[in-house]
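Exercise: predict the fold of this chain.
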Amino acid sequence: MAERNRLAGAFRRLFSETDEDRLHEDELDPPRPFIEHFIDLRDCIVRCALSWVAAMLVVAPFAPKVIAILQWPLKGAGLEAQGVSVQGLEVGTGFSLFMTTMLWGGTIVALPALLYFIARFVFPGLRRHERNLILFTLGAGVFLFLGGVWLCFSFTLRLALQALLALNAWMHVPVTILQADAYIAFVLKVLLAFGLAFQFPLVLLALGWLGIIRAETLRARRGVAIILIFVVAMFLTPPDPLSQIVMAVPMCVLYELTIWLVRLRERLADEPEN
């Protein structure tokens, strides 16, 4: 019981507004003229832009290595041994891939700096427990995004490539040359789709911790949620059942975990304060 009370107290201190917060509320981000907020916004945008450009310049020399890494699923699926290869079919293919790699890679590398500058602009107007919730959500979001990308890169892309090329052979239109632009765009879209799809349970968790959605509501809508998850997976993944299942099953597990965490929050929040 004592351990549960300590856990409830720690939860309140991190994610709930306390009496001490209310006493010091006037000390947080005192009212300022509109022009000062506008100047802060301008500085935030300029710093984000400079960070993004600097990150793209850092990534640029590694563009050939990145393109080689994105072809690993093709090799892992055993398709290179069958004569399938990625080739450029136009004179500007190299430049197009270079720009694509620099833009996407620069955005990923610059993301920590972008989040930092945005937080510097937004956090002064937030209360302590709101800042803690945002930091927790961002940390969990990065973890889930990387988990989705890893799952896709390690398993789903291999299954999808094998299934799609097998379908081509069954339709008597075997494909041995993959256009570089189209292949890289396909890989990036699928990776991004998996990363973003894994953010959906986190949105529900944030809403639940804010008290907007209750665990009982999530539990009652479980059947509808599972159907929606499979429908979303059908649109976000390549057109083969295996890829859809690989995306949908972890999302269903995360949905169940979200119900449990929201229920835990409700129980801890209902515990009487000492």
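Check your answer against the key: The beta strands are 85-87, 177-179.
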